[in-house]
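[stage:ingest] chain + small molecule (3,4-dihydroxyphenylalanine)
[stage:ingest] validated
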Amino acid sequence: MKEQLAKIRVEALAAIQSTDTAASLDAVRVKYLGKKGELTAVLKQTGKLPPEERPVVGQLANEVRSALTEAIAAQNKVLAEAAMNQKLIEETVDVTIPGKKTELGHKHPLSIVIDELTDVFTGMGFEVAEGPEVELADYIFTKLNIEEGHPGREWTDTFYLTEDSSVLLRSQTSPIQIRVMENKKPPIRMVAPGRVFRKDEVDATHSPMFHQIEGMVVDKGITMADLKGTLNEVVKALYGEDAVTRFRPHHFPFTEPSCEVDMQCFECKGKGCAMCKGEGWIEILGAGMIHPKVLEGCGIDTEVYSGWAFGMGLERLAMRRFAIKDLRLIFENDVRFLKQF
Ligand code: DAH
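[stage:predict] done
[stage:export] tokens:
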């Protein structure tokens, strides 16, 4: 039995040292030290030995077992180290290779203008409203006091979607005024940016799709002074404290009185230049006191409430702001153009 143990020791140690993976090492462990392993089998037989031989053989068997256990632990370490070194070689990162740059997107020039404007208005307590782009003629015209036969209703100017002229792509954001007033009781303070559509040929200053922002206040005791005060603040917030405005009488069917608001040209300070086409002033929006017919049509008591409204084109604002010469660039979405803002 002693020879047997010595043989197991030599064989097992050699087998342990020749393993090259954790799996093969474990196989060797099972082969000798497992429940049905060779060393275990020898140990089981020590019971059959004459009593005086048992302690000697038992001690030898234990020595062999601890020698194998130690050798397995040592080999385990060697293999783990080798595996780690291999991994480090395989996963080497070459930090000198130039990285892949992820291009961050950013805001479209029109979105910049819309966000700035809505920020100024929300800062003054206005809510942001929305309305449908496919809208009823009732809301775009009739409820805004635009009578039958008005040029704005012409088929040549607008995109009707039904033969009976009852549904069209909205040609102004003003119907959002009606939608808000029909759904909300005064006091109302809202702005509504959105797309509008008109049958215009595409050129450097026209597009069949463009953007407006509508604004409206309805409350007790609202006057033209509130309109002027608010719009002056907005223009100053956008163009600086020294921005100068001018309110000219005008006509819109849904406001009375109505006005157009000009801003003194910021390039030439009113002297006249290419930017303002020699005028010294740049028209920026239409506005006025909401017509009593419009308020009453939305169920608002004009004995108690009054309001003002304005509508402003956004493309021209963005074009001036960023010195964009051709409106088409805004919609072409050429990344080389958009990257500049
Ligand atoms: N909707 C008008 C347009 O498209 C602009 C406008 C003028 C809107 C006066 C208003 C307003 O709310 O009061 O030309």
